[in-house]
Design brief:
511 residues, mainly beta, Neuraminidase, five-stranded antiparallel sheet
Length: 511
Amino acid sequence: MPVNPASICRTFVLVGLLCAVAACGGDGGGSRRDGPAQVSTLAYVVTRCHEEKGGKGYTGSQVLWVRQGDLPPVKIVEYAAGHPAIGGACRLFGQSRTGNSAPLLGAFQRLGVSHDGSLIVFEVTDDFSTFTHVVPEEQQGIFAVRSDGTGLHKVAPHSNDPCFRVYWPCVLAPDAPACSSGNAATIGTVFDFSPDNRRVTYTDLGPSQTGDDAPQVVTLDLATGERKPVTRLPPLPVSPECVGQDTDCVYPSTLPVRFPTFLGDTTIAFQRGGGTSFFGGGVFTVKADGTEEPEAVQTVALPGGAVVPIFQITGEPYATAAIVPGIPENGPSYSAGNNISEAFVIEPPDSELPPGGRVLQLTSYERSDTYFARMGNDGQHVFFIASENPLGTNPSEQCQWFSIDRLGGDLRQLTFFDAVGDRRRNCQDTAAPGCSITSSGELDLITGALMFGSTCDPVGSNPIGVEETFAMRSDGSGLAQLTKMQGVIHHADGSIDVELAGPARVPTRYR
């Protein structure tokens, strides 16, 4: 069989890409409680592969697991993985230490958990995989299953819009000037549920105003399987020059339409295009029934021109990260490039903030890796990660979780991960030796626990330092490891086995 040179190139640089993408509640400071923190429903994908000596004889598989509380996980479905163009891919995957790049390699794509924790929705297709196609078309689609593992059924065909974008020149040469302000890859594996748990929103190809097919926001009725496009957006030009420009354009590794999110039952927000804000360029709302054209969300400009949107429709504060002027003192990160990123809270009108003071900057760390800002379930506290030492309790400047109230007080360091290795780590730096936080946190709507991925070993159950899923209460207590992966196993005959987890989801709000 002829070998595609592009596939060979993709496999050679797989380890760089895997490292690069390791990339869209409670009371915030309440009393401590005994025992480990729990999540209500955890859905996660486990990817395994085996390779003989010299990279020969590759085999692989992916499994979707669901765990309820502290019960044993239930296996939902398993798919075989395709083959790389050349050997060595399993070893490179293991070296990445994180499974969040799994959508590029196999069948599982988008994943979501309903707000009440009762239903899992997941997407299966390997049509866009960098490996060979092995999953029959009749086994592909969007599926739903109850959280106890019963009632598995197909809801609709899979999306024709890949949930990831890759810019291969920056995978090959991440230090090139053109790559300093953009990610090598972006993966958006979220199905967001409506508040009534009847629909999910995501992106799919559909007709635009010009008649061309382009990524659109769609909804899917989980009872009837009706897929409804709610936008008719024209295609966007793609260029490396889009970063930092207020142009209707996207960087090659940026999803053109990203993070569609329900704001109530009748409105969906989404991001589109370029711009100077870390939160995204154009931010729009659209009626969930598709009867009106999208409207731009009101924005305010931070000093230096960064733009932050105000979701007045929700009537609630929300948290985000935004780029501010300056060069970060700790160098570039995967999410912000060579820019300073800080945490902000956005207040609606008639809030506790004075008139006109709707944007409050919560951090001033002048680093590139202050992000994953999340508003707590109580609407009063913001959670974020950073590698700063604002309280004198993080002298090694290791990546940690922090919380702060929405008016900038009561700053707390929630994790105390030990530094590993001989250099400081930007958050999400997955290179070994060392450890970091490797996936964005999700606040469980039911238990209030914060779920996240990390290659650290805070409870003594991750000595090999692969990405595991952890949970803790909103005050930092009850830190618990929820998964246990084998990582890389080297056998005496030269063969290897690899097992890594990701992505993972709990019931949450993506706002």
